[in-house]
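Suppose you are handed a protein chain with no further information: no name, no annotation, nothing but its sequence. What can you learn? This example shows the usual starting point.
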Amino acid sequence: MVRINAKGRERTTRRSIGLALCSLLVLLAPGGCDKASTARPEAATTPETQPSASAGAEAASASKKANDAVDPQRAKTLIWGTIADNPTEAADKAGEWTRFLEYVVDNLGSYGIEDSKLVFCHSPGEMADWMRDGKVDLFDESPFAAYLVNQIGHVDEPLLNRWKNGNEKFGSVIFASAKGGIDSLDDLLGKMVVFRGDTSTTQYFLPKAFLVEKGYTLVEKNKPSDPVGANEVGYYFAWSSRDKQVEDVMDGLAAAGGNSDEFVEQLLGHTGKRGGSARHPRKGTPQAQKSDLRIIARVPGVLRRLVTVRKDLDPELKDALKQMMLHMHETPEGRAVLATFGPASRFTVADTPKVAYAGISDKGALVEAEVEKFSKLR
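A reasonable first move is to predict its three-dimensional structure. Written in structure tokens, the prediction is:
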């Protein structure tokens, strides 16, 4: 958990050791997930009976009032949520959020905000539950994950788009090793593809949807060595940083991988600030370069990073948050904070479903199957 307190500037970051899942307000201790496994980690919280979609907003409002009555400090605290599949990802996100959370407290004191926190969930279903129960106020994730939370819980609404690495949008690339003999999508038949994780927008959903729409049959596998039928394309999840898909392809574990165009074209092969944040290339081995890869398909982009908000958050506070973020890039202090936040360059309006979820919500049965899947993982 990262916690910023306006009075004492208290900062605490609790990090688990080994592969663990994130529960509300803390990172749980290791919970049975093996680093060698490519299966989705088991949920760390116990699912509860959920209200129907039509009852979602009403239930959220009632839960929020009950929580505030029990804990008066809750009304003075803004809680932001995001997804983290492993402790490394959680630690990366915690580090980049620290100054932004301070900035929120500094600028919203007149609205009674004294504290701001970042919490991690394991899955979209968990986040939908927490927003319904009033335990999380805002959600920050890429469009696919944000759409899942919205469709499962029906208690949040899109607000803004956070630009990262200078990009308003990002798309996907399906890539292979330049020397691996894969020259076209048809060459993937009977082969394995590696994706990052099952809530990723550009490193799973977009490339998978692209292949399915092209007529290919994709079948999820548990590990790279699983057999793949001659008329299908197998895929597995790396459950790691963006570098892992490239490494698996270069090592021959997978014939191809899905990643963001931003990563492959801007960050791959670089270190430090130019290489971007949340990078974990394998130590002791030269990092792959863009020239080592062959791009065999490109998938059109979607918004870079969505901020959504509980529908029943105080309207004045909601508007103050929106205006604060929209104008951050206009001041030296705001730009300095944004530079540590991703890095981000600015926020822009994305407060309608049509704008926020473009490129995701129009995938019909493909995305609805994902919503149904995550609705059950709660």
